[in-house]
Amino acid sequence: MRADAQRNAEKLRAAAVELFRERGLQVPLKEIARRAGVSHGTLYNLFGSREALIDEVVVDLAAHRLDRIAEQALARDDAWGGFAYYIEKVCELQAVDPAISDVVTRRFPGAERLMAVCDRSYAAAARVIERAQRAGVLRPDFTRGDLLFIFGTNALLARAAADAAPDAWRRGVAFMLDGLRAEAAHPLPAGPLTSRQVYEVMGRLAGAP
């Protein structure tokens, strides 16, 4: 890569990180190019697509933050505390970082490297869930797919209330966690979603292209 092209690529990476974290992964590419001080065509010439740019600048950030939450949740002695910590911290990330919120809800499934991070994150979540269920503190009918109801709705609430009531998501998460305790369980009116249903619903909920 020529020196000028390399400089432009670095400018675009920096601008993309800033705007993705300010407004989410759907921010118009023209705005990223404008902030970087390069043309829209330069962005496409260097990265080719939104998904390629996302994979270039978001993967390491998302992997580090989501992996760390799962590790800290599993390191807690109290299984319920670990589960609650995982849910609360991921929801907090959604509230303060629109880019991570879009990652968690799999908004751009065409970003292959990022989807690998998502898959690893949900596998870690499954370990957090199973540990809490083995301890008898999390209702046994809760599945990894049910995280859709927590993270999907939290993403919408956190984004809509960001200016008017930035802590509103905490109230919603507290209600959900209380309802997930084993002693609060009642028979559910419908069965769990299949993996295919989870991905389809997440895509529609997040407005994925």
From TrEMBL:
Q: Give the keywords, sorted.
A: DNA-binding, Transcription, Transcription regulation
Please spell out the taxonomic lineage of the organism that makes this protein: Bacteria, Bacillati, Actinomycetota, Actinomycetes, Kitasatosporales
Protein's organism: Streptomyces litchfieldiae
Q: Which residues bind DNA?
A: 28-47
One Pfam entry name: TetR_C_43
Q: InterPro entries annotated for this entry?
A: Homeodomain-like_sf, HTH-type_TetR-like_transc_reg, HTH_TetR, Tet_transcr_reg_TetR-rel_C_sf, TetR_SbtR-like_C
HTH tetR-type domain: residues covered? 6-65
- This chain belongs to which protein, by name? Helix-turn-helix domain-containing protein
